[in-house]
Amino acid sequence: MPESALGLLESLSSLFTRAETTLGPFTVEDDQAWPSPCLQGPADPGHRYWQPVRQQPRPEAPLAGLGAALELAIPASLQAFYGSFFSDPITLPSPWGPLSLTLPWSVEEWPRLLENQLGHCLQQQRFKLEPAPFIAVLEGDEDGIISLRLRDGAVVLEWPGQRTRETLTPSLDAFLRQLLDAL
Asked: Which stretch of 27-31, 141-145, 177-181 has the lowest confidence by average pLDDT?
């Protein structure tokens, strides 16, 4: 694993640990139709505890299909982000408002996540924007989508149906450090 991917893995692991310590145990509605290696024991009737779980390495890059469909290279940082953990969204404080990271819940969720990423990137191209796969969403009234610009790896904030983008941080690692500092 490249050094930058290791740093990203450490940042995500630290973020999850600090979030659970600060926000309390993670729970999710118990849904037999949506299994995940993240699921733990029962929390209360109808809910289960869960924790982010490290993904097993895979032979192909996690977003290889997206890169092939877009005919663009996917940065190693984004491959590491999506290939590192299974997780349900966790609402985290941030300098931009509460947000939830978008990670796969299980292996079975991968096709849906890739379809959503491709649809998002094709919509951006329709608006004459360079493709930027999403990594998080703002919670609340904003409806902002936080994405990673493929050209330079910068993390940007965008709004559905608009051509406006705001650069938040120069890299995914810097973005995760900002989230760690906000907890």
From this structure: 141-145
Amino acid at 92: L
Residue 35 lies in a domain: no
Q: Is 110 exposed, middle or buried (0-12, 13-18, 19+ CB in 10 A)?
A: middle
Model confidence over 140-168: pLDDT tens digits?
A: 877 899 999 998 999 999 988 788 899 99
Q: CATH number, domain at 167?
A: 3.40.1580.20
Higher pLDDT, 60 or 99: 99
> Is 70 inside a domain boundary?
yes
Query: DSSP letter string over 99-145?
Result: EEE---SSGGGHHHHHHHHHHHHHHHHHTT-----EEEEE-SS---E
Residue 39 lies in a domain: no
Domain assignment present for 31: no
d(CA 158, CA 134): 10
Confidence (pTM): 0.90
